[in-house]
Specification:
The chain is α+β, with helices and mostly antiparallel strands and 251 residues long. Helices cover 58% and strands 9% of the residues. The chain has ten helices and four strands, in the order αααααβααβαββαα. Helix 7 packs parallel to helix 10. The longest helix is centred in the N-terminal third of the chain and has 39 residues. The radius of gyration is 60 Å and the shape is globular. It starts with a helix and ends with a helix.
Amino acid sequence: MLRPVRADRRTTSPRSAAPLARRLPLVAAAVVAAGLTAACGPSSEPAGSAAAATAGQSSQAFPSESQPATASAETSPTASASASASASSSPTPSRAQSGSASAGGGSAKPARTSAAPAPAKVPGPGYDSSADAQKQIDAALRAAKADGRMVLLDFGANWCGNCKAADKVFAQSQTAGILGASYHLVKVDIGGNSSANSALLRKYSPSGGTYTMPVLVVVSPSGTVRTDTHVTGNPSLTPEGLNSFLLKWAA
């Protein structure tokens, strides 16, 4: 009876050892997994996030060739900002200059300056009996239309004392300045035998009668007589009297 029992033990022991051998690798794997879990701690991220994180860490640790380009692109706004700041600090052209440049195709037109006309020539003392008085008056009227001055006709004679007194005042600097700035002076000799000059006197002073020399007639650029001292009487032949007369009728 003892031998059969021994035979059964021999046959059953190999059979029970096979399942045990199958379980040992599983137990070892469980022990290794438990050790890793204890060392790293439990992960709250889902599966696959560890691989993504690992890929992200590797990309951060080893930047690709495109990152330097990105960095340089990020620094370029600073340079552009400084460039724009320097451009904004530069003075801007005035509105008048930019407008003239755009209107004239980039070339600025010079501004007009209204310079005062040069003083008219003031004749010297005395009366020229050989002069063509009509031509002188016509030339004075043309000049008056161009510059807006008045024409002063001085009818007199070289032997007239009052005419010489007036000539002395006309030669003074203040009176000569008024004459040059506001008048074209024409002196007409009526002391000789010139019928043409006498006709001019009657044309611009038509009231007739006895004339007291000098006869001063102010004529506008259009040829209209503004005042005639044969009608109004001569002013005082002094600097004050003649200057006041000239300033009154210059406007």
